[in-house]
């Protein structure tokens, strides 16, 4: 059967300012710039974000390559630490305004719809040192001011906006699991940060609604939904999965779409004296200003089992008290990244949005495969023969297509990422792009998956003959 996608389906990919631009001409450091300055040894091969994939200098030719791949849309982000000179007054940096204007204009001229995100883990480090970053509601206000400048400057041409990318990662990385600066383990702060990020999103949406009078602009949030699967059907494992779902997905999904935090989650936080500080007025804003549409990043499932140790144990409160990670025997893995490959989850996500979240419009805002040392797959012409990435996309798109056939309201698919880019503390360890990047020369070459993607985007359809998966599932 021909797997055709809906009309005007978004085909493209996602990147972010901090991972692609490089630090060129930036007046302020974001948390990652700073963390790398402090501890380069914590980054793979000691490679930091200074050059990234050189997008600041090479955006024109980069965008030409994406045009060549038939992209009709691209998501990136505006760096707060680049656009704003003075965070308190919101005065803007003229070189940054020029840069983002040129990027946006070039995209439009090439038929690539600009999809702009405002926060991709990259808070200016000064705001962490001065106010405690997202722990502080002052920073929420400053973020709204930054968003205001973005809408004023670029809102005439950018019609698709997102407030945050994967806000749960800020909570987990910075405040629970120590993989992002400031690398704390502090359950109470973590929950306040989660609340403040939700509040910031709602306040930016409020501002957006006040500022936008034309009906063709939309705003949403990008969440990494990792569907939770219990190890077994036992009541204990199911309860563990239920609580994991509350923390990892619903903590952001419910307020974003329904305007409310799950009651059960609030009760649990109260019982443990880790509930965030909120006001009635703030909760009313969260209630009223929900998203127009949703971006879903999906990489891998989350499998859990009942915890070995009672959640009532004494010690620092952290959400992972309620569940233990579970490794499914015989699971399929991307061993390079350490992530399970489970394409069916994309179908499960789609149906869950349909059933539980009013079938809100959404798109796959990231999906992809990070592979190390891809030079080993280069053919004699220097093209990376990444058959595994084609299989990965085919399998995920097949499930996505099935979900759309069953009524899922999905309007696009963006791969992570167009051009191999810098990935936080993993730096350039794993490559995700449709286009490879030689980080020593910045020479960029389309991979085999790029040519495949081009055809799919052009036809708006999965190729019929290309279903010889290397691995069956
Ligand atoms: C996502 C994140 C991206 C990128 C990707 C692959 O979680 O949004 O910024 O790093 O993972 O590592």
From TrEMBL:
Q: Which Pfam families match?
A: Glyco_hydro_1
- In its UniProt entry, the species of origin is given as Enterococcus sulfureus ATCC 49903
Q: Recorded GO terms, molecular function? A: beta-glucosidase activity
This protein's source sits in the domain of life called Bacteria
Q: Which one GO biological process term can you cite for this protein?
A: carbohydrate catabolic process
List cellular component terms (GO).
Answer: cytosol
Which keywords belong to this entry? Glycosidase, Hydrolase
Report whether Kinase shows up as a keyword of the record. no
From which lineage does this chain's organism come?
Bacteria, Bacillati, Bacillota, Bacilli, Lactobacillales
The family this protein is said to belong to: Belongs to the glycosyl hydrolase 1 family.
Q: What is this protein called?
A: Beta-glucosidase
């Amino acid at each position: 059967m021909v797997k055709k996608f809906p009309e005007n389906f978004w085909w493209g990919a996602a990147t972010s300012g901090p991972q692609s631009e490089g630090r060129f001409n930036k007046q302020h450091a974001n948390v990652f710039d700073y963390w790398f300055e402090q501890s380069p040894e914590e980054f793979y091969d000691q490679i930091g974000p200074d050059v990234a994939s050189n997008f600041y200098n090479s955006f024109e030719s980069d965008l030409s390559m994406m045009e060549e791949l038939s992209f009709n849309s691209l998501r990136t982000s505006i760096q707060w630490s680049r656009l704003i000179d003075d965070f308190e007054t919101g005065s803007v940096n003229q070189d940054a305004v020029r840069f983002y204007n040129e990027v946006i204009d070039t995209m439009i001229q090439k038929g690539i719809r600009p999809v702009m995100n405002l926060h991709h883990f990259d808070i200016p480090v000064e705001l962490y040192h001065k106010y405690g970053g997202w722990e502080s509601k002052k920073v929420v206000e400053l973020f709204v001011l930054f968003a205001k400048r973005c809408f004023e400057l670029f809102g005439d041409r950018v019609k698709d906006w997102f407030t945050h990318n994967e806000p749960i990662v800020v909570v987990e990385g910075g405040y629970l699991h120590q993989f992002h600066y400031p690398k704390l383990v502090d359950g109470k702060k973590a929950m306040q940060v989660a609340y403040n990020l939700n509040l910031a999103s709602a306040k930016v949406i409020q501002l957006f609604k006040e500022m936008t009078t034309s009906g063709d602009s939309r705003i949403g949030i990008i969440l990494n939904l990792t569907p939770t699967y219990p190890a077994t059907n036992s009541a204990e494992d199911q309860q563990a999965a239920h609580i994991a779902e509350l923390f990892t997905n619903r903590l952001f999904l419910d307020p974003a779409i329904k305007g409310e935090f799950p009651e059960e989650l609030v009760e649990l936080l109260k019982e443990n004296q880790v509930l965030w500080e909120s006001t009635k007025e703030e909760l009313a804003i969260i209630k009223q200003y929900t998203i127009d549409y949703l971006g879903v990043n999906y990489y891998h499932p989350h499998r859990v089992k009942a915890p070995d140790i009672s959640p009532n144990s004494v010690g620092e409160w952290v959400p992972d008290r309620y569940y233990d990670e579970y490794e499914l025997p015989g699971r399929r893995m991307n061993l390079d990244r350490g992530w399970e490959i489970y394409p069916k989850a994309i179908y499960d996500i789609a149906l869950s949005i349909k059933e539980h979240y009013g079938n809100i419009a959404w798109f796959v805002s990231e999906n992809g495969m990070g592979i190390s040392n891809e030079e080993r797959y280069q053919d004699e012409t220097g093209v990376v023969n990444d058959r595994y990435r084609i299989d990965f996309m085919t399998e995920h798109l097949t499930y996505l297509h099935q979900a759309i056939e069953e009524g899922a309201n999905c309007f696009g698919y963006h791969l992570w990422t167009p051009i191999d880019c810098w990935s936080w503390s993993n730096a350039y360890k794993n490559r995700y792009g449709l286009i490879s990047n030689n980080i020593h020369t910045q020479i960029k070459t389309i991979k085999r998956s790029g040519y495949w993607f081009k055809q799919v985007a052009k036809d708006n359809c999965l190729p019929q003959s290309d279903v010889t998966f290397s691995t069956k599932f």
